[in-house]
Structure formats: structure tokens, C-alpha cells
Amino acid sequence: MEFPTWLRSRGGKIHPELDLFHTLGSGDRGVVARSDIAEGELLLLLPIDCAIYMPTEEEFNKRPDAFPAAVRYLRESHPGLSPFLATTLVLMSEVTRGSASPWAAYVATLPPSCPDCLLNWSDEEKQELEGTSLEQSGPDPAADVYRRHVAPIVAARSDLWPGLGLRAEAAEGGAEAREEASGPGLRAFLRAAGLVQSRAFHLEAENWVSGAKEICQLEGGGTQVFLLPGIDMINHSHNPARRNAHLERLNLAQAAAAKLLEAAAAEAAAGAAADADAAAAAAGGHVEAFFVMRADKPIKAGEEVLHTYGNLSDAQLLQTYGFVDSDDAFLRNQPAAAAAAAASSGPSPKKRAKAGQAAANGGGGDDDGSGYRNPYNAALVPWTVVEEVCTGLLRSMDQAPSGSLQRAKRDFLAAAGVLQAAAPDSTQFVLLAQEPLPDELTTAVQVLLMTKDEFQELRREFGGGEPKAAAAGGTSGKAKAGAAAAKAGGGKARGKGGKGGKAAAAAGDDDDGSAGAAGSSSSLPKLSLGTALLTEDEDFAEMVCIASLQVLEACMERYPTSVKDDVRLLRTADCVGRERLAVRVRLGEKDVLQLAKKAVVELMRRLRDGGGAAAAKEEEEEDDGEEGDSEESGSEADEGEGEGKEERGAGRRAPKRQRRGLGAEGGEDGSGSGDDEEGEEEEEGDGLLLGSDDSEKVGYGAEEYDDGIGEAHDRGKAHEAPKDD
Ligand SMILES: C[S@@+](CC[C@H](N)C(=O)[O-])C[C@H]1O[C@@H](n2cnc3c(N)ncnc32)[C@H](O)[C@@H]1O
After folding, report:
1. Closest ligand 1 atom, CA of 198?
2. pLDDT tens digits for range 563-617
3. Residue 150: is its pLDDT beyond 80?
4. How far apart are CA 226 and CA 545, in angstroms?
5. Which one, out of 10, 406, 474, 620, has a CA that is 20 to 30 A from the CA of 631?
6. Nearest-atom index, ligand 1, CA of 322
7. What does the alpha-carbon distance between residue 394 and residue 387 come to, in Å, rounded to a whole number?
């Protein structure tokens, strides 16, 4: 049966003017309009029982026979599998069952694999991702998960996964499957995993009957993974200028209200809102929910239908879907690079505002022909690097902290929500193009650079209860800690207050400030130092900025290639396929690190000059052709740091002598001051554009499942991603 016939026979609808399987110029397939489609028109309607997914308990209990046999088996025998792996196994079952599968018409629409998603990269190809957030170590997780989890399940039920030739053998602790390293089972699994990874929709479980945004508790927790036939033919664009469709899910009553059901079903749904079963029966079975794709705007004949897969960085898109969003042209285009380099070295606030606005509107660049840049790109900064750099800096000043003080600081930061509570040493700070200098990073640097007395004072002042008022003025450790505590109290609290505060205060009695058991408590409010301490103490501010620059430089050095090398590679015709994808990911991350360096330099200058009427001064200086100290407040960097309103009005300060033995020109390692930094940017000449600031950060679920593959292959695992807007 042809796919459209199959879909319609199950109550679905396809817009008559849509070519669902159009071959695009790129060779890929996509959905294209055959003639003009008006805004709001229905493109695809998919009853939920056409989808392949693991139901919630409630969904399953309502109609157990409606689900594939593999769903029933996995629910009963392997309830601890992640939604990702369970869905992969169900798809694998439908694929291996061939024409016997009720989803055969859908299976026939699927491509042979997701060719470029990370699952399919060889170890040699993955080396191109060294230094990036996608760098992997250890055994290949997919093959490993297959051997440990999938093969035994498949071998035990060859009726559900026929034709794979796996034999179950008794082994200590359960069945063990025997198969050649690259046998048909592994190949079938890798294909199904790649397809689920690149085509599935990750949605919060919802009560389909009430339609209320009431989240059902999945057995494993977290989101449900849906394969949506037909809808999964639509390609991604986050560029608002290009995307033109969006997905909704409706319950029966909502679908009836939207006039999406046949007359009898609509009548039943309207008349029997309380009796969802009756309405569902009238709708032609037990369908209780629908996925609906609509046109967001008019779509012209010949235009591709596009929707967004989420606010994902290029690394996340590559990992999951095998492509990146930034235009190749953006990265290699000489005029764009030059424009970006100019932007990096300090355009006027007006120009920066324009660039920021362009990015906020969807990445920027397109309007002037320089190509689209993914505004959701991100870079990771490991805590271990931050700790190493700060310790090195203190050591160079003969102020090396004791091991116990270092541990105390780490434990305190973990308890205060700056580092991961469970595994502080594995913490990676996420720098986003839109927020290149996160407060967590500058907070960690500040704490690490505090003297023992300052740290003890901070801990005494910082508690879970009401923050103590900051001591007015002064640059003593006491004032510093007080200001910090005041700022922390204003931040988002996580966990309960009083207990953690007492614990921290009690722990502060230790000689070296070690937090002991209290330090590992995660019940403190979140510590957010902002720039209050930096405005109090210029020397400290200088140290913090220099250490931050050194950290960013160290992160830059983790990549085996320089920005220049990457741009050069992109300009050659030889750099193709996966190598080219890797270069584009590298450049996107380095771009974010450059933005962060620039934000530090701007912060440094702003603190040094005290804000004032900097914007006007900057304009003047720019007109005079001076570059030097022209990047004070009023720029998007201020906003990007998410702080500093109070600092901006602080008035001009006279530069002070360093009391900590650091020159403004940088430490011994030559990481340099802002001027050095700028020189370096000019020398690199790589220039990548400024970020936008239009989104919040949110992490994808970090659920624990038996298999672990849900974690390894869930989208967005490369790092936290901004929430969809
Ligand atoms: C959900 S499927 C979309 C349909 C797919 N093009 C097909 O032929 O079956 C997702 C896959 O489409 C491709 N894709 C989607 N959006 C893309 C884009 N903007 N650029 C390049 N490839 C894209 C990638 O291969 C991705 O893994």
C-alpha cells in the first residue's frame, strides 16, 4: 500500500498540494508545495495510533491491543529501557517484520539510514571532532549498548525481531546473545537507532484525554519519543525567514473544535466531551489525539515546507541529525568574515545592536548576503580547566592555595549550585553565543581566586536564609563577601534555605574553610556573584578577567586546529563530507569562545572605566579612528552577561595599583590584557559574528535508564540547549 493511502485509511489527512517525498537540489528529500498554500491551512493530520511510540501506562491500559507486539513485550519484560532505546527496538521490530507489519507502508518511506549523524562516524572521522563538545572517549556507545542490552532482548524473542539470526544462550546473570561483531542484528539496530535519533519527536508526556498540560509520569520519567509518519519528512530550519510550518498536538475535543474530524466524530466529540471513549469510537476507533502540522505563513508553489527541530547548536544538530544549520557561506565567506572581524574588534553600539538584533531575529547575516549563522551555538568550558588556570595564576603570585582550601571551594561551589552536585569535577560550563560569559563561570573564577579569609567570609555570609546586607563600600574581604551574599540571595534559590545556610556557616569554622559534609549539601541557594565584587576591588577584577581570558585561551587550545586553519579548510574544495561538517562545528564553537573573550575584555574595560557615559565616548573614539578603550557599557555584551545595571551607574574610578602583583598587561603566560586580546583577534582575522540574546537556557532531561543509550544519543546531550521560543 502506498503511504498516502495507508495514512488516509487510518484517518490521517495530507494536503492535496503537498509533495511529501520531493527530491531536493541537494539530493536529500523534503516536503514541497505543488501550488500556493494559505497561512493556517492544514498540511498533515496524523492520528496518534499511526505513530510509533512507547505509551504511558494510562494510554496502554486503555487499549493494549492497539500497540505493536514489541511494545507490549518491552513494557512487560524490560520496563527500565529508555524511551529512546525502547522506540528503537519497536521500529526495529516493524522493519524486520516486513510486509507483516501494520507500519509497512511507513517503513517503506524511511531512508536507508541517517548517513551523517554521529552514530555512523568511524573512529577516524570522529577525530576531526577533537576538542569539541562532541569529542568522545571510551568504547563506541551504540555498539556497546547493542551488545549489552539489545542483542539479548532480540535473541530472546526472534518472533518479534525475525531474520536476525541471533541465538540466545544461557549465561550467568541472564541470556547472552552470540553474533559476529558486525552481524545483521547490529546493522539493523544501528539503522533503527539512527532513524529514531534523526526523525523522532521528543515531547512531554501529556494527558491526551483532557488535553490539559498535565504531565503524565512515564515509568522512566521524562519525555516520550514519537515517530510521526509523514510529518517526519519535513526538514529543519530555525531561520525565521525560511521556516513556515509548526506542529501541534490536539486531543479529540480540540480536533473537533478545529473542524479536523469527520462530521460524525466531531458531533460525538462535541456532544460527549466528558465521554472521550464515545467520541473516540465515533472518530473511527480509539484515537484520542492527533498531531497536526499547519502552515505558519503562506507557502508558495515550489517552496519547501520547513519547521524547527528546536533551538539546537550546530554540534547538537550534527550529533542527532547529521547536518549543521549555519550556512557554510557564513563561515568561509571572506566579506562576512571581515565584517565579523570588524565586529569582534569593536563596532559602535549601534552596529552591535544591529548585529544582535539580526541574531535575535534568527541568527543574522542573511540580510546582507553573508549567510545564516546558528545563534544557538555553544562552547563548553570544563571546571577542571578553570581550576587549573586559577591555581596556576595564584601560584605565579606565590599565593598557591592548599589542597584542602581548593577542595573546600569546590565543595562549596557544588553545594551552591555552581558545579554539579553529584560530580563537581565533571562540570562543564556552557557558553552560548547569546550569553557567552555565564555568571556560573565568573562566579567560579571569583571564588577560586579569593584568599582563604575572603572565602571563609563569603561562606559565613552566604547562607540559605535571608541574605545579610552588604557592607557599604570598601574593598575588604568582609565587604566582598557581604556583597556576594547579598547578590546570591537575590538569585534563584534552589532547594531549601535555612539548613544549608547553617551548614555552610558551621563549616566555615574550619581552619582552612573546608566544607566537610556540609559542603556537599546541595541545599544552599544558588550562588551568583555577578560583578558586585569586581566593582568593589579593581585589582581583584583584573585578576578575575585575566584568569577568565586564560581559561578561554586554554579552551581554544584544546582544538588541534586554529581558527585560521579551519577557515582555510572551508575555502578549499577538498574539505567535503564529514570532515567539512566537523570543521563547521569547530568554527561555531570557537566563535562562541571568541565572543566570550570579547565579553571579558569589555567587562574589564567597563570596570576599569566605571561605566559612565561610555556609549557617547565610544562613538567619539570610533569616529576618531581609535580602537583602544572604546568598548564600554551600552553594548550587547552588557546584556549578554545578564548583569551590570547597578554597575553601569557606578561612576568613573581612577585606575589603581595592583595589590596582588599582577600587571594589567597580563600574567607570565602572556594571556594578556584586553589590548593583547584585541591584537590577537586581529591577527587571527577569523572573525565570526556576534551572538544574539533572545533565549533562555534549559537542559534536556537527564534521566537515568538501564541502558544509558537514551542519554548518549538523546539530542542535545552535547550540552545544554536553549529552550524553544
Ligand atoms: C526528520 S528527517 C527529514 C526528512 C529527510 N530529509 C528524509 O529524506 O527522510 C531529518 C533528516 O533530514 C535531513 N535534514 C533535515 N533538515 C535538514 C537541513 N536543514 N539541512 C540538511 N539536512 C537536513 C537530515 O539528514 C536529517 O537527519
Report:
1. 27
2. 989 999 988 989 999 999 999 999 999 999 999 999 999 999 998 887 533 444 4
3. yes
4. 46
5. 474
6. 27
7. 11
- Cell 537515568 maps to which residue? 704
Could you give the C-alpha distances from 200 to 114, 230, 248, in angstroms and in order? 12, 12, 15
* Residue 30 alpha carbon to ligand 1 centre in Å: 7
Q: Whose CA is nearest to atom 15 of ligand 1?
A: 235
pLDDT tens string 181-209 = 568 899 999 999 999 999 999 876 554 44
Backbone angles phi, psi at 203, to 5 degrees: -130, 150
Most confident of 54-63, 217-226, 412-421, 710-719: 412-421
Question: 97 C-alpha to center of ligand 1: Å?
Answer: 26
In angstroms, what is the span from residue 672 Cα to ligand 1's centroid?
44
- Single out the residue of 338, 334, 380, 340 nearest to residue 359, CA to CA: 340
CA–centroid distance, 235 to ligand 1, in Å, is 5
What ipTM does this complex have?
1.00
Q: Ligand 1: list residues with CB < 6 Å.
A: 28-30, 111, 114, 198-199, 232-233, 235-237, 321-323
**What's the confidence (pLDDT) of residue 164?**
87
User: What is the number of the ligand 1 atom nearest to the C-alpha of 110?
Assistant: 9
Q: Which of 236, 239, 291, 316 to mutate to test the pocket of ligand 1 (most atoms within 8 A of CB)?
A: 236
Q: Please check the confidence at residue 364 and state whether its pLDDT lies above 60.
A: no
Q: What is the DSSP string of 175-229?
A: EEEE--TT-HHHHHHHHHHHHHHHH-EEEE-B-TTT-SS-B---SS-SEEEEE-T
Map out the domains of the chain with their CATH numbers.
1-51+228-309 (2.170.270.10), 324-694 (3.90.1420.10)
Nearest atom of ligand 1 to the alpha carbon of 29: 8
